Amino acid sequence: MKDNDISKSRHHETLTATALGWVDESTDAMALPLRPSTSFLRDPNQLDRAGRIFTRDDNPTFSQPEALINKLEGGGGCLLYASGMAAITSVFQRLQPGDHVVLPKLVYSGLRDWLNSHGLRWGLQVTYVEDCSPHLLQSAVKQGKTKIVWLETPSNPTWQITDIAAAADVAHTAGALVAIDNTVATPILTRPIEHGADIVVHSCSKYMNGHGDLIAGAAVVAPQHTAILSELQNLRNEYGGVLGSFESWLLMRGMRTLSARVRIASESALQIAQFLQSSERVEQVLYPGLPDHPLHDVAVRQMSGGFGGMLSFRVKGGEQAAKLVAGKVRIFRQAISFGSTESVIEHRAGMEKPDTPTPRDMLRVSIGLEHVQDLMSDLQQALE
Ligand SMILES: *Cc1c(COP(=O)(O)O)cnc(C)c1O
Q: Which CATH architecture best describes the domain 260-383?
């Protein structure tokens, strides 16, 4: 089922909780049916009847989660991928050898590693900027040569904020597209296309699914970019980074609670950021919801409903002191990844390559859905 009163709602709570109100036409099932079929029947004239041929190209279980993500982002189309990295790399696979891309130095480390080991070898020219403020971007873009300006806001793992509209102005003037990794903010808190982004990608392994039991990715294109959507769809088919139908079904299930999860995580994260700021053992708290964050005013303007569930803090005493704190937690789990129901803490520099720009005395936390008092007491005892 396609359009209905629910899917016209402007409120993400309604869109997510009802999964756009779709009902399966053949059974009236209110929950998305799982359709794992690899292949689809052709009529006697050898033409496909349902517009579907083979699941590497498309599968009916993708339609509802793709429509929901697209609706939340205000896009012109969405594609699901086998992982966030598959979604991210497809944006670069569109490019030609010699094309130039600009991205922030502190970007999701998997993308930095991919560009260094594969993007460069393949002929891409890469410029890293200290941050994506308009004047730094201005000096990094090359008129007509830069094809992608890559943004992430708040960005891993120090939660820098980028003014998307200002960055998009610079990129578009130079003839580049703006692609943004919206994994951390989610469309619940930020809708980059409204601020001028052309392509939005997600690791759905994090908040979108939200239950720590799935690897998936998504790419959304702005409504004016239908040609890019078909290019990406062809690339997905040809490189084969398509999502499994069961994973797609799980993702749809997880996204029904997206709004509520992001709201709770954001509320708790703000309280925890304030609590950490008052601790004598903490050197610095990095969280866009704090008034002393350098771009707090941009975050207030660009984000709605909270500042997200991710924050980092630098522990007095350096790397060893930070690692000790991470080792002492009892409710937080010491683990990689984020955006699940349970809170995790991680010494991020230790997880990245030795040349990482990530501060070595810094711990990254993902705030989950536990009671905030339990989380604060846990950090308190770990810091003692
Ligand atoms: C995890 C993550 C990715 C990569 O996604 P996978 O689903 O693990 O491939 C990309 N960007 C950000 C911001 C992430 O946190």
A: Alpha-Beta Complex (3.90)
